[in-house]
Amino acid sequence: MKDIVFCSNNCFVLYSAAVQAKNSENKEAVPSLPQSPMKERPPKAFHQYSNNISTLDVHCLPQLQEKVSPPSSPPIMFPPAFEAAKVEAKPDELKVTVKLKPRLKAIHSSLDDCRPPSKKWKGMKWKKWSIQIVIPKGSFKPPCEEEIDEFLKKLGTTLKPDPVPKDYRKCCFCHEEGDGLTDGPARLLNLDLDLWVHLNCALWSTEVYETQAGALINVELALRRGLQMKCMFCHKMGATSGCHRLRCTNIYHFTCAIKAQCMFFKDKTMLCPMHKPKGTHEQELSYFAVFRRVYVQRDEVRQIASIVQRGERDHTFRVGSLIFHAVGQLLPQQMQAFHSSKALFPVGYEASRLYWSMRYANRRCRYLCSIEEKDGLPLFVIKVVEQGHEDLVLTDTTPK
Asked: Quick check: 338 and 344 in contact, CB under 8 A?
C-alpha cells in the first residue's frame, strides 16, 4: 500500500501504511458505505483552516471498499520506427493496426538541442542592404507647382492639355465667379437671361424653399430683397441668409456665413455666432454638398420672349444641338402665306444644328437652316457645312 499525502496551505502530512493499519481496528465505529452498481463518489470532507494548519482528523475518514472495475483493454505497445504494431485484444473485439512515422533524431540533453537543425543553403544566399539618405543642413524649400511645370516643359516629357477657359459667370448673391466648391456654394444655376446663382446661395435664402421635384421657389423674391441687404461679414450687398433667432438682424452671404462660423442645422435654419449654442449639436449640418437634381423655377416662355424682344442680341440661345441665331420678321402682307396651323415662317429666321453627316456614317456636320422669300412664298434653305467638302445648298418650298 502506498503512502498518502494531504496538503493544506503549505503544510504536508504523511500517512504511511502503518497508520492505516491502526485505523482498521476502528472499523466498527466507522459505518461502511453500501454497495451500488453505479459508480460511487467519495463523500465530501469538510476542512477548516486556521493559521495554515489543517484540523482534519484522520481517524474519522471512512474507508472505501474496493470496487472491482471492469477489465480494461491491454495497453498498446508501440514498436520501434519503420514497423507496424498490432494490438492484441480479445478474439471478439476488433483488431487495430497503427502505423507510425519515423521521427527525427534529437538529443534531449538541453533545450537548445531540441530545436530543428538549420537548413544548409546551396549557392548564393539573400543579401540585406540598407539605404542611407543624407539631408543637407539648413532650410530646404520644396519646389512649387509653377517651377515643376517649367521644368517639365524644358524636358518635353509630358503633354499638358490646353487651359480651360475662365468662367466669367457671376453669382447674383455672393458675387463670386464660376462654379463653387461642392461642399460650399456648389454649382451655378440659371435664373434668367445672363443671370446665375449658386445652388446653396439660393437654397439657404430665407424666402426660398424646395419642392419635392427639386424646384427652388421664390429665388427672384430673395434676390430683390438681397439687393438692399448688407452682409455683416463682408459689408457688401446681396446677403439673404439671416439668423433665425428672434429679433436678430444679422444677415450674411452663404459663403460669408461659413467664414464667420455660423451654425447650420438640418431643418434649413442658421444661427449667427452670437446666438449659436456652445459645443456640438445633434441637428448640426456640417456637409453642404447637393447631388440631387435642383433647378430654379421660372417662366421659360417669358424668358424666351425677353430674348427675342431684345434688339441687339449678344447672347446665344441653344436647345440641345439646335443653336438659335435670328428670329426674322413678317410684314402685314406676308402674314397670310407665311404660316400654317402649327408654325410661323418668318423671313430672316436662321438657326444651325449639329447632326449626322450624309456622306459618312460615323461623323457629324453642321446644318445651317434659314427662311427666305421667293415669289411671295417662303423658301426653306439648308446649307450643309462639312470639313473637307464644299458647302452643299438644299432648297424647297416646304419645311419637310
From this structure: yes
